[in-house]
Amino acid sequence: SRTCRRAGVWGAEQGKRCVCMKGRFHFYEGYDIAVVTYPVRVFFLLGVETLIVTNAAGGLNSNFKVGDIMMIKDHINIPGFAGQNPLCGPNDERFGVRFPCMSDAYDKDLAQLARQTAKDLGFNEFLQQGVYCMLAGPSYETIAECKMLQLLGADAIGMSTVPEVVVARHCGLRVFGLSLITNKVVSDYNSEERANHEEVLKTTCMRTQDIQCLVSHLVEKI
């Protein structure tokens, strides 16, 4: 059996009661999709009303730069296409309806509030908005896959977040999401560039304080 190190952190932020995940479960680590999303249902039962999710993502949009922060306006659930949807199986009516709508997965009012907050903080220069696409991982995407996802309208790609958002919306939680663009995807067969985890970690360290600041000020206004 594996030891769970994704403990919750309890406290207050800007006078608001909060619970935070200290890390997350990833599907590519071998966890069942139900385990990946289990914390969200716990949050719901605790009385949480708003879920803020963050992730590291590769930039598919040619206008994005490494270090940009993308507000997620929608997502593409590739594992869901293959039957890996956290809502598969018997529906528990205590959490939500059998067939929840996902056309409003990301709260527009929260996005507008976040945009104004970013402007007040002087973050407009590196704030973007776009569509996040989830792949199961852990291998990075091929050039052909990148080209396909660009045609589908994806702006950024990662290996997390979407299952949690699906369950959160099933529970009726408001959702706001941020993707940190940690690298540009390789979409040119003649390129010598390679996706690597070291670049992801380096960019994450560079922008961590900015994301913390944005989330903190956003929570204050919710």
Q: Would you kindly provide a written description of the structure presented here, covering whatever features stand out?
A:
With 222 residues, this protein is α/β, with parallel strands linked by helices. The protein has helices spanning 33-46, 78-81, 108-121, 143-152, 162-170, 197-221, and strands at 8-13, 16-21, 50-59, 69-77, 127-134, 156-158, 174-184. The protein has one domain: 3-Layer(aba) Sandwich (Rossmann fold). The protein is built from 6 helices and 7 strands; from the N terminus they run ββαββααβαβαβα. The chain has a 5-stranded mixed β-barrel with strand order 3-6-5-4-7. A two-stranded antiparallel ribbon has the order 1-2. Strand 5, helix 4 and strand 6 (156-158) form a beta-alpha-beta unit. It is an enzyme of class 2 (transferase).
Quickly list its features.
222 residues, alpha/beta, Rossmann fold, five-stranded mixed barrel, two-stranded antiparallel ribbon, 7 strands, Pur_Nuc_Pase_Ino/Guo-sp
Quick structural gist:
It is an enzyme of class 2 (transferase). Keywords: Glycosyltransferase, Purine salvage, Transferase. By secondary structure, this protein is an alpha/beta fold.
Q: What's the average pLDDT?
A: 92
Quaternary: single chain
The CATH class, by name, is Alpha Beta
Residue windows where pLDDT falls under 50 for at least 5 positions: none
Q: What CATH architecture do you see?
A: 3-Layer(aba) Sandwich
At CATH level 3, the topology is Rossmann fold
Q: Treating each run of at least 4 consecutive H or I residues as one helix, how many helices? A: 6
Radius of gyration: 17 Å
Give the strand content.
Answer: 15-25%
Distance separating the two termini: 39 Å
Please tally the β strands and state the result: 7
Biggest sheet descriptor: 5 strands, mixed, barrel
Strand order of the largest sheet: 3-6-5-4-7
Q: Summarize the helix and strand pattern as letters.
A: EEHEEHHEHEHEH
CATH superfamily: Nucleoside phosphorylase domain
